Input
Amino acid sequence: MANDLARSWLTLSAPVAAARGAGRPIVALESTIIAHGMPYPENIRTAREVEALIRDAGAEPATIAVIGGRIRVGVTDGELELLGRSDRVHKVSRRDLPAVLASGEPGATTVAGTMICAALAGIEVFVTGGIGGVHRGAQETFDISADLQELAKTSVAVVCAGAKSILDIGLTLEYLETHGVPVLSCEQDNFAAFYTRDSGFRADFRLDDAAQQARFIRAKWDLGLAGGVVMSTPVPEASEMAVEEIDALTRQALVEATERGITGKALTPFLLARIHALTGGRSLATNIAIVKHNAEVGARLALALAHAERGAGQA
Ligand code: PSU
Ligand code: MN
Output
């Protein structure tokens, strides 16, 4: 756990505190995906189902959000409802965290925001859908998600289905390499592209087995190599979308965003909502299947990390 001052802003839910007390592994979940990534009521239903999957696998889920001026590590059903229904929930990345803590207004944490809070709470594994990245055209706009900087410095393993093709996936991987963030993949050699399994880019290291993944991560952190690890897992085949379809719709959504002058933190939620509408909701079913699959992978990783062997030799 972080120092006492940082900890004074955290509230662990009763189930999370009990899991901590019993030494059971905890898996963090983000809330931007609930408040800004999926429509109501599927967002809340999915959040509950994902929590149940993690619990069934033997770990404790901790959905992270900022409510009432506190960082909440684990939320109640009522709080989940607030996050999923209210249109006054802020999207909270590193920059925004002090603002919602100071104002007391509700905030949903992004990948970056959730990583910060998970690390403060001593949680090593975080399950999400897709990470933010370098946006297409970032050479002009400078739009690079703060998620990537967070991965560079905050020691949490992020289980995701890669990054969406609304982003420039090649540049995203280059950025991660520059910052020393390892990109692991399971089930396939290549990095996943969210709605589709194959981004066309190789991940750095393929590790199919949770025990191997855990040993890799332990070695990194034991050495003091601070920073995150991206654990890419592809969408299950049965839920994958057609590459041509998703490419065409992504291009259309990007054109619309440019025409409407949408930039900054509003861009990613706009693109997600447009793709959802343009697919007549089919992309949402894929999105849900992705997060559930990631929850299973993440729970297995959290259990493996709890048992991971350290270096066998002597210092
Ligand atoms: N990608 C998705 N679904 C999401 C997000 C990204 O497929 O819900 C959310 C995550 O919370 C991520 C954030 O951290 O968007 C990135 O936003 P930005 O690009 O503004 O950094
Ligand atoms: Mn951005």
About this structure: Residues 276 and 283 are 5 Å apart (CA to CA). The chain has a mean pLDDT of 96. The domain at 4-307 is CATH 3.40.1790.10 (Indigoidine synthase fold).
